[in-house]
Amino acid sequence: MATAPRPTGDPRFKDARAAKIAELITPAITAQGLHLEEIELAANGPSTTLKVSVDLLSGTEQVDLDTIAELSQAISARFDEDDVLPELDTYDLEVSTPGATRPLTEPRHFERNLGRLLEITQAGHSPILARLQGVSEHAISVVEQKPAPKKGMPVKYGEPAEIAFAAITHARVQVEFSHTQ
């Protein structure tokens, strides 16, 4: 799988403090129909910046800004309840989504990007551009995009192919400005 499958234990939370925060805020995140992607704590002078990354579990829709704002308020309210995190005396909360070009590391990341153009690197091979056609339990189905022979000519596509998650060393969505799905 791209960027190696996650081992047991949850590396989304780099330390015990982040794991504790995840435990506290996960109910607010799931209440919004979202999945907690990652928590990052960064010292920023006298305060701490708490970065919370969330995404939808499935589908190809995007998380809207109203949902992010509501979630941010819910997380802040949870922290204010009985001062559950006294070690975070002052903090700046940043709630966001992972972004369009984040590395795809889990099958659900691929499922959320069906129909999109990906740059995929397999062990021992050069990166390819391919349109994601499907996702199964162990692999993705893609159609490789061949470079146009001359500027302005239509893009050519290869034959459909299947790539096992185990063979993918890196995968990322390529932002397109003119493709319609």
TrEMBL record:
Primary subcellular site in the record, as a coarse category: cytoplasm
Pfam families, per the entry: RimP_N
Any single GO CC term annotated in Swiss-Prot or TrEMBL for this entry: cytosol
Keyword annotations from UniProtKB, A to Z: Cytoplasm, Ribosome biogenesis
CDD domains attached to this UniProt entry: YlxS_C
GO biological process terms, semicolon-separated: ribosomal small subunit assembly; translation
Family annotation (InterPro entries): Ribosome_maturation_RimP (IPR003728), RimP_C (IPR028998), RimP_N (IPR028989), RimP_N_sf (IPR035956)
Ribosome maturation factor RimP N-terminal domain segment(s): 24-100
Subcellular location: Cytoplasm
PANTHER family: RIBOSOME MATURATION FACTOR RIMP
UniProt function note: Required for maturation of 30S ribosomal subunits.
Family: Belongs to the RimP family.
Name of protein: Ribosome maturation factor RimP
Organism: Nesterenkonia sandarakina
